[in-house]
Amino acid sequence: MISSVIFDLDGTLTMVPSPWRYVHERLGVWENTAYHFLNEWLAGRISYEEFCRRDTSLWNGRTVGEIHALLDEIDLNRHVPAVVERLVARRIPSIIISSGFKYLAAKIQEQCGWNPLLICSA
Question: Which range of residues forms the domain containing residue 83?
Fold first, then answer.
């Protein structure tokens, strides 16, 4: 008997392991800039706050709609609808955890008629 289920959004419910990186790649800023900011933070050369400031500056001039359009390109894992249908039918509580985009989790909820608890940082 399953009492509850916890899903990682990125790379489990979606086919992309990092929607954040995906957006950077689609905007053409991953290899020359964003990747280096990430490595600087991971190496301890800059603070997390500085990393976030630099990282988000790469999307300056983009609308939320443009970012959402890129996120809309990300496919769900093909098993998600069937698994969610079973969870909903059995009324099994679920949680989605992500350090990525709440937008993607909300999209999955809407598409699947699913109301899990969301724990997202963005």
Answer: 1-16+75-122
How many separate domains does the chain show?
1
Structural domain contains residue 60: no
Query: In this structure, which amino acid lies at residue 20?
Result: W
Contact indicator for 17, 106 with CB cutoff of 8 Å: no
For the stretch 66-118, pLDDT in tens is 999 999 999 999 999 999 999 999 999 999 998 778 899 889 888 888 988 87
The pTM of this model reads 0.85
CATH number of the domain at 120, please: 3.40.50.1000
